[in-house]
Amino acid sequence: MTSNKSPTTEPASTRRPKSSSGAAGVREFAAEIGFARVAFNLLVVLLLGLLFWTVLDLPPQSAGLHAKVKAHMHVSGVASPITAVLLNFRGYDTLLEIVVLLLASIGCLILRDAPQSHPALAPGRPGKWVLDGMIHVLIPVMLLTAGYLLWAGDHAPGGAFQAGAVLAAAGFLLVLGNRMRFWRTPEWLLRLSLSFGMIVFVLVASVVTILTKNLLQYPENYAGILILLIEISVAGSIGCVLITLFAGHPPVTRTPAADQLWHSNDEPKE
Amino acid sequence: MTALTWIFDGLLTAAMVYLAWSLLSERDLFKAVVLFIAFGLLMALAWVRLRAPDIALAEAAISAGLSGVLLLDAVGAIRSPNPVPEDTSSDSG
Amino acid sequence: MNQPTWYALTGVILFSMGIHAFVIRTHLVRRILAFNIMGSGVFLLLVAIAHRIPGAAPDPVPHALVLTGIVVSVSFTAFGLVLLKKIYAKTGKTALIDPTESTSDQTN
Amino acid sequence: MLVSAGAVSTLVCVGGLLRRVWLTGPIRHTVGGWSSPLGIELYADGLSTALLAVTAVIMGTAGFYVVDAIRHKNGHTEGYDSDFFWPLWFFLWTTFNAVFLSRDVFNLYITLELLVLCAVPLLILAGSGAALIAGMRYLLVAMLGSMCYLLGVALLYAQYDTLSIPQLGALMVSSPGTAAAVVLMTLGLLLKTALFPLHFWLPSAHGNAPAAVSALLSGLVVKASFYLLVRLWFGAFAGIVSVGAGNFLGLLGSLAIIWGSLLALRQQRLKLVIAYSTVAQIGYFFLLFPLVIGGTQLCAPSDRVDWLTMAGSGAMYFMLSHALAKAAMFLAAGCIAHAAASDRLNEVIGIGRYLPVSVFAFALAGVSLMGLPPSGGFVGKWMMLKAAFATNQWWWAMVISLGGLLAAAYVFMVLKQTVVFRLVDIRFYEVPRGMQWAALLLALFSLLLGVSGQVPLDLLAVGSPFSPRAGQGWLP
Question: What domains are there in chain C, each with its CATH number?
């Protein structure tokens, strides 16, 4: 537990008792005798028991939707059933999932304060040469792996997410080695790279909707190529989003003004 | 053969539950995060056992690797006001 | 008892451990860890139920759901950690309720 | 420019959908051409289109408020001028549309996550430490809730091999797995809807967000998870849930009404009064469950359909009118806070003389919350009261009336401070007209909903999920 002993936290902790009346008082009392905790432990044990019973009671054999997926594989445009489910049968889920990632990176960008390079490895620190070596050797290998995963997603394990994650790992190395100045990225390029995957996905969805009168229904002969197009752009964007989540964080420096801001609004009274 | 796979599955799941338990009750946050990364790798093994290689890849890359790096970074950041360069051992994922 | 059931049971154990820690712990990093353990439990259950016919290929739909779920939970983890760092930078807090105050808070 | 183009095009689409549903009945759309167990289906009936329309009205009007707030900055723009405000705004709007149109339990899981990832960044744009903490608390609650929900989804898929709500409804039978799924999914959604006693996160989140965002959080975001509960309980779980379970939710709802109202009376900040009022009003929505589920047993079979539809439509009507009224209240509070640079009740004394439009908007919205005629709140409460008596459940009628009195108490508390007392020596910032009129417009809409009477009711009746069919619950 990294309890913070700096004097600046004092006001925050002395605030509580002032506002604690009523329910909070009861809560403190309950905490003292540990009743709430015992009750909660019992509840979790109960839940575990119910879940055990549930699992043992589940139908022991079931093929799920395996047969249905198999029956429609020939029109899905890909050879791997999981990719078919992800990008064709339940492609709408995946579209929304790309938006989830994009929103996480937007949330992260909102919290940034001032441009600052990643402080992890300043030039001249011991270990820098190791990182340099890793960058020279690993980056090409990683790019190759990402490309392979993207290509393999059609018929074997792999796909846009795995490829994007490998791209992101390469990006991490570059950021750590100060090779990529995240903060120097022009704003428009940052935004475009984050949203590129979603834009392509939405464009494809709109075009096929106009053509087939059905949201995300690919014309049969073009399913494969459209899915590949989506996968490539999505993989790139996922890589960028993940790098942003890593490098786009706010630099942690406490400011004296911060604690005053904390007092500028009140917690509700209960 | 079946006995062997049973022993393997049993050991694997027991190790996962044990790791989860110890990482959730570990007092030192840094150690907890390291245990979490180890847990992620065991999960990847479990996915392979359940014939889900796609998820194994995703788990190793995204969940163990990426979450691990982010968690280490966050723990490093809240440990001291000025982050010290010690969290670079984690970029293998 | 067969292999999928065994893994499914492990999944629900992990979920219960996660939910327990999520509620009783106060430190935000610990809660995010607990969230990830809960997620692992759910995903393990989903993949285990996809594999209920020995020998045959597993049902791909739960696999796709799990892949989606992993990405969603990573997004939450990443955003939560960034928010946590910002809160620490701004207020010096690493928990929503001061950990010195009581060990068994009930924020949830 | 771009903002209005986006808003207008969405409004046009919603209008078109509304017209089609009104003329031809519920619409089913198979995404990708794959029908249900394999693919995802979208579905629009009267309830979902009504929600889409109300969402469009609130998002459009609140957007107008924000445009005006950005145009006339006075030092505190509450984060509206952030580069990311409008993208998040439109993502949120899109997400609402996705929630109200989906009927696939896993797809709904993702849309709920999207909702959180739009709402929390919008909330923390306020920038204060309190807003950050409130955002974190909200995020954690959402994480816990969605994991419980997802485990429920997994258990359902394990038993029925489908994720579609109507198909689940046709297949579901009592079993431990079903019970666990119902409990987990309901618990997760109750956390997100902030039903008492799981409301602890709501006041700080809704009270510390920028005013226009509070309007969305209170007016729409909590409704999204409640809407999903309604769809599940009267769609998928219809054959499973018992009268006792419905009564339990009703009991929690009653406690929420009383507890939320009492705490609203104790607050010293205007936005917190409104936030606790939301806690109370959420309680009303949950009276839907005992009124409809309990009604099936306690009411004579001959006129069952009428009364149950009336209870359901009444609760939904109340929910729509609450969405408009609560959004109006938060916008009015935003105007008041803009003028006084604070929303503490003892610093806005007598502000009504300077901001008659905003205070009037607050009062009009208050009329709807209290349930006085001719507001939409009145019609909703009236229908619920009638259904409560007709199905021999008079005790819920007592709660409904008591809640109205308590709402009157906290609305008048605010009005007393802002109108009745006068302070001589006080200075206020000027509030742009557009902001004030946006609040009033929403309050008028909430009133209009009551005056228009039968039209929204007819819309809600299109494919109503509340009319039971013989032997199979409420399946559409």
Answer: 3-91 (1.10.287.3510)
